[in-house]
Amino acid sequence: MISDVTDPSLAETGLARVRWAEGQMPVLRSIRERFTRERPLAGLRVGACLHVTTETANLMIALKAAGASVALCASNPLSTQDDVAAALTGEFGIPTFAIKGEDELTYYRHIESVLATRPNITMDDGCDLVNVLHTRHAAQLEDVRGGTEATTTGVIRLRAMVRDGQLRFPVVAVNEALTKHMFDNRYGTGQSTLDGLIRATNVLLAGQTFVVCGYGWCGRGLATRAHGMGAQVIVTEVDPARALEALMDGYRVMPLIEACKVADVIITVTGDLNVVDKQHFQAMKDGCIVANSGHFDDEVNIPALRALSRAHRTARPLVEEYELRDGRRIYLLAEGRVLNLASAEGHPATVMDMSFANQALCAVYIAQHADALAPGVYDVPEDIDQEVARLKLASLGVRIDELTDEQRRYLASWDTGT
Length: 418
Ligand code: ADE
What we know:
This protein is an alpha/beta fold.
């Protein structure tokens, strides 16, 4: 079996960690058990481009149990857990192409390696696999029944492909499931970003001025958790409704250029380009920490920071100190890449359980329904979303009420008024 991992001898360590995550993924586990009996992906090839973590390993194992041939590459050069990549190849026989710290050339070579397995179903986190497939391997498109996409940025790119008439198969936008973004994006990003910040720097958050750029689901989660750790949170936004929501959630709201003057920590979660730019670095206090937990590493204008700097050194692993010409120092974490995955372990397994339950069920949905779906971006079917929520509640031992027949009729009626 062909693979490309950092060190195959890490497989045993990786296996123990994959098992630990499995213990916190009861929904995916129950789906895997059903898949083992029913084999709904028998004979199909799945090509996945995801963060190579303990949680992703459990998804790959579930897909293999469903009868699929699976190949996996990294969806970010810095997010791979090398011991997990080793375990996937060595312990589970899943071709894996992922090396933490790989350069751009290797990153794309690894995507090519997955595409060389000629997938029938794509599973993407950020749309790089689908993009390379369409731009460099169009002849292979006829093999593909459809795909799934995990993240907000990926869904935005897919919708742009649809707008330009480029997308050639149906893709389910797993990110849009309530049981995905309300939990993964909010609680997952909230906690794991602080985890990355703390592991990278060991700073105390209490009393710090903490700036969150972007108040989508990730920003909401990050602001709540930073506030919970005692930080004074400032939110910056471009959307007036979201800005108002942040204000009424109790945060200060202002333009980033103002926030920079008082910020101790600035973290971007916007999905947009050059959010922290030249003028912002020029306004920052000495010692300001800057990081990103959005999908791509272009939210912080690193070339502009380099151009403003007279010196540069590594202060700690994945903490770069940039010394500006007037002597102020700015600390950039994880090369501006996903802080929560580069400096920590990504979202905890408990939330990834729901995200990956959606991925697994949507892969089967694509296998069974692709013939009836035109190329395009599709929401997760509501019954899958509801099923994931029901299974998660059951795994937590939480019961809820049910509508009575009378209530059901009332909700379906229009003639009962004041
Ligand atoms: N994205 C964010 N956290 C993740 C994790 N733990 N595994 C896979 N993808 C992720």
